[in-house]
Here is the input.
Amino acid sequence: MSRVPAAAARNTRSAMENKNMKIFICASKYNYKHIPLIKQKLEKLGHKITLPNCYDDPFVEVRTKKESRKKHIHLKQKLLKEQTLKINNNDVVLVVNFDKLHHKNYIGGATFLEVYEAFKLGKKIYLYNPIPKGILEDEIIGMEPIIINGDLLKIR
Here is the structure.
């Protein structure tokens, strides 16, 4: 009778416990480039993934803002409503917070609002990397996100 090493058994159990969760990935548009590999790994673990607003066209807001203030306001309101629906329809939120220029583990305004909405709805909040230092640090700490340091098996 062959024995499975304890670590392998734990990893298999962890993967099985994590099956079939619905995960909303949110991130700054500047970090969208990291999402495909994370999405692929999560799907391999059996999760269903919801991608961030404007994932297929990350800079639509920048272009719209240049067109007119009215169009930008309309788009922004639409996106804020969409993100609330996405959060509501998922089990957890995963914030993909890599560096943006000189901002370590960047979380922008829209992503912060997604984290806050998840908190208000009682959803688990996971951060891929540690909480960034800065003006929103205390608020993010108060929402008690789970820092996974890149270990997707910690999402449960």
About this structure: Residues 19-154 form a domain with the Rossmann fold fold (CATH 3.40.50).
